[in-house]
Amino acid sequence: xxxxxxxxxIGALVGLVVLGVIVFFVGNAWFGLPVGAxxxxxxxAFPHTVHAGSVESGGLGLDCTFCHRNVDKGAAxxxxxxxxxxxxxxxxxGEGSTSPTALAEITKLRTAAEQGEPISWVRVHRLPDHxxxxxxxxxxxxxxxxxxxxxxxxxxxxxGTVDAAQTCSTCHGQVATMAKVKQVRALKMGDCVDCHRANxxxxxxxxxxx
Amino acid sequence: xxSTPRERKWQMVVDVDRCTGCQACVVACQAENNIPFxxxxxxxxxxxxxxxxxxxxxxxxxxxxxxxxxxxxxxxCDNAPCEPVCPVFATYHNNEGLNVQVYNRCVGTxxxxxxxxxxxxxxxxxxxxxxxxxxxxxxxxxTVRGRGIMEKxxxxxxRIRRAELDAKxxxxxxxxxxxxxxxxxxxxxxxxxxxxxxxxxSRIHEGLANKRRFRLREELGTEPNVVYLSKVDSEAKEAxxxx
Lengths: 210, 243
Known about the structure:
The complex is a heterodimer. Chain A is mainly α. Chain A contains nine helices and no strands. Among the domains of chain A are: about 100 residues, no CATH class; about 40 residues, no CATH class. In chain A, α4 packs across α5. The longest helix of chain A is centred in the N-terminal third of the chain and has 29 residues. Chain A is extended. The termini of chain A are far apart. The relative contact order of chain A is 0.14. Chain B has one domain: Alpha-Beta Plaits. In chain B, the strands form four sheets. A four-stranded mixed β-sheet of chain B has the order 8-1-10-9. Chain B has a two-stranded antiparallel ribbon with strand order 2-3. Chain B has a two-stranded antiparallel ribbon with strand order 4-5. In chain B, a hairpin with a 5-residue loop joins β4 and β5. The longest helix of chain B has 13 residues. Chain B starts with 9 loop residues before the first strand and ends with a helix.
């Protein structure tokens, strides 16, 4: 093979690989889907399955708003304080549990409570600083418009509305079945604005950016 | 159902006769809007930030001199010279009469600043820094602007949004007096009055109907949304003239 041709071939090959890498990263940024599809490691392996999972599937069936108390009242959903976990975990120590991790993980929680220290949970969903998101307007809207809810089949009440806890799946997926919370929806600007357009919600830049 | 709010148009009335030049508005604005500190070297370079500032000038000959004060802020012009020159539409007029600056859209050409006849726009020449002790004192409702971005008075849009959301939670319209921008709230003499001119109940109408009203550089045709009331005594007319 002439030298020039093999050089050309190698050049083309390298170019193709570089292009492939660029397309992958740009495409990934464009669609904004979380890579690897794994949530971050938390200081205590808190399983939503055990607490929020349905009773039939072996969970406690706690309502999302029992812990995320502010979700239908204000901008931030909020994560519960250690004291709130201790409602139960002052008694539920994990001793004799069928779960092999329970004792160790609950002990971490009880130690934090004894020392009066908060737990530094790692944020899973985090919009950039220049975006202002509000939970409660969305929850109230979705409670009244169950047909907009996705990722689950909400239990509709007689008056056509649903519980606040039924709305979360729209943006967060089925958290109750996640041992470790991960982001399932892009929640990029296009994602927000598409839904706003479809539902006649504000699309003025100053609704989300200020 | 998404409830469409009543039409709004925000305006401010500044009563120059009440202004004592105390700078409370300036400090309040600085704290509310995460505006970085102005150091001596910033002053020397003419690169200070103050979304609202008090222009001070002297009138008369010694010993009969008088200090005059004029609070200056973004005029939120209906016909804003800053808007058409932005190549990326980072600044525009929204349906509430606000001149909006979308920080994340801004690429820092500074054309808007050049075209503003009121010197109301400020450019971030540096990354903003605060002393470590003050890290938790930043306002979470306001974006911290990075280097290379233009910023200016927003009429405290974060407070407008908060009032709107609170009103929605209580299933009612925003009422006059639900909120004030930081500057108006801090003003000890109530020289600054903010309100929605589409709301007939608003206190702002009192000021708007005043005979002393004038607007800055009216002759440019910028149609500012900040209305000034001139000083009451005789010298005031001249002051208004070269404001």
